[in-house]
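WARN retry 2 of 3 for item q-0093 after timeout on previous attempt; input resubmitted unchanged.
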Amino acid sequence: MAVTKIHRTSRFTLYIGVLITLVVLGLFYLGGEVPMYEHLVADMSQPRFTDLLLYWCYLLLVITVVVWALFMIASSLKQLRENSQKALGGFLALLGLVALLVITYLIGDETLLNIPGYEGNDNRPAMLKITDMWLYSSYVMFSVTILAMIILPLIVGRKK
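OK item q-0093 returned
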C-alpha cells in the first residue's frame, strides 16, 4: 500500500514538473520578443520570457540539490546505525563534492567581462568566480561520469 502511494505521488510530481516545464518552454519559444526599446543589444534576438526560463531552471536546480542532500543525510544516518563503514562512504562523497566546489571556486577567473549593452551588477569578481565554479564542476562531473561508464563495466566484467 505504501509503495503504491509513493509511486503515485512521485508520478504525479513528475507530471506536474514536466507540464510546468513545457509551459515555460512554450512561453520562451512562442512568447514573442522584447520590444525594440527594451533590447539590451539592438541587433540580437531577445525572447520575452528568458527570465522566467532561467528562474525555473534555478528553482529546479535548488530543489534537486536540497532533495539530494536530505536523502544523502537520511541514508547516511540510517547506514550509520546498520553499518558504520558504508556510512563513512556517503560522508566522503559529500566531502568530495564540497572539496570539488571549493577547488573550482578558487581556480575561477575574476577578470571583468566586456559585455556590450550590459549595465547589470552581475559582472563582478565574486559572481564570475561562482560561474566558473559551476562550469568547471560540471566539466569534472561529466568527465567522471563518462570514465565511470567506460571503466566500471570492464572492472565488473573481470570479477565474474
